[in-house]
Amino acid sequence: MAYVKGNKRIGLLSATIAFFAGFAAVALYGITVHKLAFILHLSVMEVGWLVAIPLVTGAFLRIPFSALVDTWGGKRVILLQLFISIIGVTGIILTLQNIASLSSSLAYKLLLSFGALAGTGISIFSSGITYVSYWYPKREQGTALGIYAGFGNTAPGIFTAIIPYALITLGLIGAYLGWWLFLIVVTIIFLFVSSDNYYQQLLKKGYSDTEAKRISQEFGQEIFPTSAKETLKNAARLWQVWLLVILYFISFGGFEALTEWLPTYWTEFIGVTITEAGILTGIVYSLLTALFRVPGGFWSDRYGGEKIAIISYGILTFGSLIMIFSRYLILSTIGEIVMAIGMGIANAAVFKLLPKYAKNAVGGASGLVGGLGSAGGLFIPPALAYVVTIFGKIGFALGFIVYTIFGIISIGFSIFLFYKYGKYKHEISPELKKENIEKAR
């Protein structure tokens, strides 16, 4: 039998570590933006865009990088994403080291540009999903991807909590230097530990497609790369996929946005210290959101994704209403906890529904939902900043009406999906349901 490297557990572990490192870029400017705003005399809108910029590349690069896994292999693609992130953090460090000699305008543009490069690590989510999927049989996909997404998503929360202490002990440049070293170490680990799936390894060794599949199946591989172009095209034709994009835009994109925005909310509106803001954002909100994705997946399996989506977006909406009317630390903490629970469960529910509505285009649908959906992290922070610009300080609370409106829209879409498909057994796709009805006739 042909010699191949790696196994599914190593594949899952290496991908999760890489995603954890890359996804930490969600917190790239969330805490340090206060110091940068003071140094560069930034307006609220400029702060909003600086906070959002890593999420731009992190969102839209998910689609092409995920597709490239089928052609290049997951190892090469993820290494490229990590390398681009390292370049971005390197540029941030160099800019900060020379910030005194740069004009505020030039320094701001450089931080935007290098922040965009660093945000490439966020896009590892989709390429990692594809990478892990090829390692695991279908019956273990839910568990494997739940572990991957759940633990990888804890990165923003952990880093948001750590950075304030790094700022105190290491200073602004030292905090980013520590981040840079962490990325270097993870990249080296991934380089030596990870391997492409058996099928792609064998193709690179010169085996024919048929022979590579046969041998890979003997090793236990069940899912194989397909045409990235076709799966994207098929997914784009399904209106259900576009509803899931909107739902994910609100839950996951909204999660990314608040991870960046909440430090500003806590310090500027509630008046806590930057260290306390890091804990409230990183541990209380971001980490909790990530961890609730795990039971959210279980509940979606048991009760159906549509039902859980309705409930979770209802929870999110209720939390946003608390934030609108809160003016105090305790009530705002309760509000963000409620929002975290709703968002975490909703994120799991959306990806539970994805294979149901796009069973023949899961890869393409994952790229579209994960990529376009996460764009909420780009558009929501500037919207929140705009509300502050209009209403002043009270705008920090009033801005959460954005989440209330989005939450109500999501509840409506989820109810629509439930009444159209939810009364059928939730594992059955709309296409298969239609086939079964035709056969019954």
TrEMBL record:
Instruction: Provide the Major facilitator superfamily (MFS) profile domain boundaries.
Output: 10-422
Q: Keywords in alphabetical order, please.
A: Membrane, Nitrate assimilation, Transmembrane, Transmembrane helix
Spell out the subcellular localization from the entry: Membrane
**Top-level taxon in the UniProt lineage:** Archaea
Give one Pfam family, short name only. MFS_1
GO terms for biological process, alphabetical: nitrate assimilation
The record's GO molecular-function terms, alphabetically, read: nitrate transmembrane transporter activity
Family annotation (SUPFAM superfamilies): MFS general substrate transporter
Q: Name one GO cellular component term.
A: membrane
This protein's membrane topology, according to the annotation, is: Multi-pass membrane protein
Q: Which InterPro entries match?
A: MFS (IPR011701), MFS_dom (IPR020846), MFS_trans_sf (IPR036259), NO3_transporter (IPR044772)
Q: Where are the transmembrane segments?
A: 12-32, 38-65, 77-100, 106-133, 145-167, 173-193, 238-257, 269-288, 308-331, 337-355, 367-388, 394-419
Family listed: Belongs to the major facilitator superfamily. Nitrate/nitrite porter (TC 2.A.1.8) family.
In its UniProt entry, what is this protein called?
Answer: Major facilitator superfamily MFS_1
